[in-house]
Amino acid sequence: MAAQFQFMRFARLSIVMAATVLMAPSCASNIPSAATSPVAGWRFQIAMRSPSQQRYELFRVMPTGEIQYGGGMNAMNDYTPWETALTPEQAAEFVALVESLSWIKLVPKETGDNKTEPVFIIQYQQYGGSERNFAIRGSTPETDKVIAFMKNLTQTRYHSTLQKLPEATEKPASAPAAPTPTPPTPVSSTPRT
Predict the structure, then answer these.
(1) Residue 149 lies in a domain
(2) Which of 53, 55, 58, 168 could lock onto 70 through a cystine, CB 3.0 to 4.6 A?
(3) Beta strands 42-50 and 119-126: pairing type?
(4) Where do runs of H (alpha helix) occur along 69-132?
(5) Which neighbouring-strand residues pair with 125?
(6) Residue 100 sits in which domain range?
């Protein structure tokens, strides 16, 4: 009985391993090369953290052309619950922006002290290249430009909610006036007999 149980365990494990080996090439083929990627093979992430203001945001662009966003606790936990595909125009703007950054050519030295906020944590890699990670303490023209661009791209996460809201209308000129409340009648303070 014990030998049969071990054989069944071995058989299940063998099937799982075989399926993994067979699926691995198809998973690898889903990762675009720099030439086929809408964003030239860039994987780019910037997290903005301001602990004193309890403000956290995380923006991530994937080589497949999706942008992902997480805010608050999600950003603190490196979780991006919202994502959407970039349009070809947005992808081209992203590539131009990233390639214009001085960080791509030379990783900056860490700046500021431990109390300087916000802190920008940047990670990026272009297809086939090495991954780079660094932090910038305090806003710079480049961090401001990247954050503004990313926020602009992720504003679409509000569209579905805004579409559900009723449209504002003006009050019609012929609307009836609200009735004026009648004052309560005074109650006599003399006791009844």
Answers:
(1) yes
(2) 58
(3) antiparallel
(4) 73-76, 88-100, 102-105
(5) 43
(6) 42-153
